[in-house]
Amino acid sequence: LMTLFREKTSAYIEEINDYIENWLSDGQIPPNNLHQAMHYSVMNGGKRIRPLLTFAAARSLNIDHKMLMPAAASIELLHCFSLVHDDLPCMDDDDLRRGRPSTHKAFDEATAVLAADALLSLAFEILSSDLSFNGTKEINASLVALIANATGSKGITGGQALDLNAEGLVLDQTELEHIYRQKTGQLLRACVLSPCCFIDVELQKTTALERYADAIGLAFQIKDDIIEAEGKTEEIGKSSHSDIDRAKATFPKMFGLSHSKNRVDDLLHNAKDALSVFGKDA
């Protein structure tokens, strides 16, 4: 979000990748296929948007990003857990993820389910046990509560359930955005609020961070819909038109591409406006 932050993005990605890799078990350790599937699901070229967003929020509050390393890693593992489950035939039934076979295609469905379950457990193991960056169990407990809430029935898991339940239905904009807020927005909210567990943050800034996360979460999901509606499989890294094939509720389907693009523009403006409280460098 800041000029300096943009310049350091590659270094931050390398840092979070190294940290996560140190927590992942070697694929030669039994059960080999499980550990290999976990590694495959995480270290597969992800953009690490969520850790970067967590670090950016920390910098905006003048907190050393290293203090957020366990939280950032935990959130990324939870994101990967959700993707593995989302790709399963009983869910979104996608055979490709980031241009590679989805975990259940590279291994098998049972291994994919178990790998995702293990990533979920590992995320909270990291969050609750690594005190090397902040040193207080109280802070870790606050982070666990925040991130668990974003992961469960009120967050990404609930969002996926709502998304599945909406297949074949006609939704209005409020209903569809509610699904997107849970499926995508809640974990992004946890990213920007994680630094607030370390210090007392004035309400104005906390509210601004929540507004920002809400706006970019919706924009991100709608943009993803647009890319899938317009793109080709080789361009988007997953099966094109899979949402259409499953009669999923998407913004372009419900409201058209033009309105969808305008909504993204409005949301990005709202996100930028929310950060004004942090000054011109935000």
Automatic annotation (TrEMBL):
Alphabetical GO biological process terms: isoprenoid biosynthetic process
Keywords in alphabetical order: Isoprene biosynthesis, Magnesium, Metal-binding, Transferase
GO molecular function: metal ion binding; prenyltransferase activity
A GO cellular component entry from the record: cytoplasm
SUPFAM superfamilies: Terpenoid synthases (SSF48576)
InterPro entries: Isoprenoid_synthase_dom_sf (IPR008949), Polyprenyl_synt (IPR000092), Polyprenyl_synt_CS (IPR033749), Prenyl_diphosphate_synthase (IPR053378)
Cofactor requirements of the protein: Mg(2+)
Family, similarity comment: Belongs to the FPP/GGPP synthase family.
Record protein name field: Geranyl transferase
